[in-house]
Description:
The complex is a heterodimer. Chain A is of the alpha+beta class.
Amino acid sequence: MDESGSTETKLVHRLARRAFLKAALGTGSVALLAAGAPAAPPSPTPVPAKPTEAPKSAAPTSTPTVASAARVGTETLRIAIGIDPDTLEPVGSTTTTVDNIVDYMVESLVVLGEDGNPKPTLAESWDISPDGKTYTFKLRQGVTFHDGAALDAEAVKLSWDRLLNPQIRMPSRSPMEVVEAVTVVNPATVRFQLKNAFPPFVAAMTATRYGVVSPNHAKGFPTTYNQQPVGTGPYQYKSRTKGAEVVVVRNEKYWGRKPYYATVQFRIVPEAATRESLILANQAELIILPPITDIPKLQQNPQIKVLLAPSNRTIFMAIDNTRPGPGKEVKFRQALNHAVDKEGIIKSILFGGAEAMDGVMSPMLFGYCKTGTYAYDPNKAKQMLKDGGWTNVSLKMLHPTGRYVQDAQTSQAIAGNLREVGLNVETATMDWPTYLATITAPPEKCTSDIHMLGWAPSVLDANQSMVQFKKSNWPPSGLATSHYYNPQVEDLINKADQNLNEKERAEQYCQAAKIVWNECPWIFLWVQRFPIVYSAKLKNVGSLAIEKFWAIYAEPI
Amino acid sequence: MFTYIIQRLAAAVPTLLGVAVIVFLMLRLLPGDPARVIAGVLASAEDVEGIRRQLGLDQPLVVQFALFLGGLLRLDLGLSARTSQPVMQEVLARLPYTIELAVMATAIATAIGIAAGVVAATHHNSKVDYLVSAASLCGVSMPVYWLGLMLIVVFAINLRWFPAAGADQPASFVLPSLTLASFTVALIARMTRSSMLEVLRQDYVQTARAKGLHERAVLYAHALRNALLPVITIVGLQFGTLLGGAVLTETVFGWPGIGQLLVESIFARDYPLVQGIVLTFSGLFILVNLAVDVLYAYVDPRIHYR
């Protein structure tokens, strides 16, 4: 870790107490000045455009070694993240950031690409039967696992049988309970039999947790986790210090294009400000989620690049549609939507790190369609409230703190907006597990009128997003905490979930979305961006729309 | 003395059992469903139920407690709900880091604190005395979180002398230890100062001077030795507290200690791990207290344990 530049230190000050204070104050004021005078307000790029800085990787992992020789080096890339992985075992996956690490080591038959579509990876191609219940994958030849075992249909079957086994603890097996059987057709072909048609099957398979592990891994850990996963990825596991770091080294026998960096060190740094310090002190090359308040300052720093990556995460205020009170009325909910100044909040509290929702899901999802906007119009809101006879209404608002970017701060701003149109708002917060338990109480027992929630489907498909509007997903079965129900919408969504015709599917989701948008079970807020900050000396840093950074082919400029 | 130590250790057992019961019940009184928290918001109801069964949380409370006690008697703290690794393993992986930080912070605080306290006492009511008092006030009042970040800004970003985070380099302990020491050094300085002042007023100090002893001998062989007794108590208590993990410092510096693990586990409702950490910390605290008492007997010949 000699990139820290201690050799660059020009002189050593003998700091007397006053000089120290001066230095600290000076640094502080310079920082304040720099932060207080942005050259231009950061303008969020319109979605679904490409992110602000997106040097594309030269070749996707699916194509084998390209004619242009890949540069290969010996250095270490240091990436700082905020979460200590609970486990590196793919089956145990619960967090996207941890998946981001496991992606370096383990690959699935298909992998999510930067454009949001599944890329052939361990599978070169696949066929879908007309009834949509049988998928046949042709495997790539000549691929070996890190332990030398060969990738063949038998290995894929072993890996899949293991993760489908109820004896192994898999926090997110769904939606793959739809798989009835995995069979070997021949060493290069594997077949998946589904219980019923599931159109997003291939897209869902890109999830890290369905990665293919080596037969030794599968057989050696049939019902427990292997903390040192053995996959086919461009890097392999080297070491781990709990709470401090995970280190992976380049797989010299990788089937695809070899990455530049010989070693990647993932540093666990829970404090956002410290992550930012790491990159400012040149002790890390890439970090995620810096303090959002510092984004404008970082964007002006020539040594640093800021990528506000588009993501799948929508943030909204779910309105309890069944609680006795005005929340049951469409007009009331529409008034609430007009009362909130989304653009203002995005600009001043989120520092440009989001876009106002113009549909019921993130534009990065298949099945997204633009359904409109609720313009910020407090006068119209006041009028609507008056017309509906909703005077002297008290609302109880719940929000988490520290779960989503600026959740507490934006909630307070929203409460302020609502008060401005004449509503009484009482806010409350609690730690995440308590919060979850509170909002997933059975509908009759719910105690809040509106609460903030974020939703980031792990599959970039409307299927996982529209569940929020289905009665079958009301708590305790699921997280449709707004208790919204419209039989027409439910019917459309169910049809779309099973429809194998992509165009028709998208149409049906869109029709459902339009109804939902008009009946606004939520106060539609924004689609969060995922900030990735990296050294300006690095190129080929991108993102995946599921809040992941994509830096496997990063290299120095 | 030996029997005394054995007696104290024996008395620790019911204490630890009491701690175990309290933490077991407290955790289950907390609102929140561990199975749902671990599975995540996107998990289906079946996934959540599956996890609940695997964690044994679908059993009646009495059964859960019986299993927990049974495990304790075999010195088996169970498996972490989040990582499925043995709790003992998780704790032991992070404990050395917390111990290292606690030791370094206490050592720095003790060295500087005692020196400052002695200087202040011997120059009573002078500018130095006021300076030490003012600095102590700052040390006690300064928010650890802010101090840590300021040290990072100055020494890591600007001067590039130390790493901003992590524990992988030899110099990594410096900034976190300084941050952690700030509170303790102030306490120790104040205590040493007032204790020294009192001792310096005693008759035997005058006698020592009258005997013609060098001032340094008077101070260190006679005065300080006696003044240190209350200071030992403070150092011991502080060290014990620091062993519990200095969460804020560990978080700011990305230091892989136990304090952070405890907070993470509480937020994740990882019952076995929280239980394990609290028990470990209680055991350590009991040992530190015992060590302080034994040290007392060694330093003060007037004290005998029966």
